[in-house]
């Protein structure tokens, strides 16, 4: 049994000891929910205003590592359907979800659908777990992996197939703008990228002050696009946690650690975490765009006076095992790949 949280949390009146975080990890300080996270209007990314929108996006990545996008072209109906499908998925009977269950400890980045509870990834000890279940699988361009996706709810493959195609399109728009903002050739990010769906389900929690949906971390992939409707996401800005106010029909976009490497240190990857609440479960649909091979500072960004800050590494072979091995809290996963000045 994988011990999925969503199978038993509704029956709990108290946070079990397994999910009570050590004192220093608990989210006890008050956190302000802000609406200052930049909002980028992708509808303006095509016309005369493009250069200004690209600048806005780069500034957002530099200052916050996060922004929200509107007018992204993903139909509202599809966003609603995808959210419904995932909520239904997480409320399926335990036996159904068990088909995909994996121990967090055996968690590797293979394609086939898998589920796990909480995450030991960013943690010192298996004894303390986060307040979330995750469903994760690849979403390959050729669509061949779709037969490994969940087949319940019955419209899962159809809805999520369409959704992941749309999100791939959006990710290309964003990465095209990142390439332009960094002064790289337009197709810089077009090759060698993988896509994963990583969907978090954070049940309502009897005592949110004792636990976290997921602890502070930086994402290991290039960019993440999150669909959310319930508050819970917080980001670390100037050493202070701030809450991201959900915006209807918008997506949250953030940069992961490889973007810092490719931009040779120009673009931050910002730590974030998720808090729980007593009344609402929260489902967040993550589209993770991942490098497939080599990650290194873009050649166009290094030269005399601009030495590379990072070594070249293979994302799947060199980086991911280190990232998953933990002890790699926040930006530490990049440490072994840094070149000392
Ligand atoms: C993640 C993550 C944020 C959220 O899955 O890496 O940070 O809002 N999720 O659920
Ligand atoms: Ni994350």
Automatic annotation (TrEMBL):
This is Dioxygenase. It holds the Pfam family DIOX_N. Belongs to the iron/ascorbate-dependent oxidoreductase family. Residues 193-291 form the Fe2OG dioxygenase domain. It comes from the Eukaryota. Keywords: Dioxygenase, Iron, Metal-binding, Oxidoreductase, Vitamin C. InterPro entries: DIOX_N, IPNS-like_FE2OG_OXY, IPNS-like_sf, Oxoglu/Fe-dep_dioxygenase_dom, Plant_2OG-oxidoreductases. GO terms for molecular function: 2-oxoglutarate-dependent dioxygenase activity; L-ascorbic acid binding; metal ion binding. One of its GO terms (biological process) is response to molecule of fungal origin. The gene is DIOX.
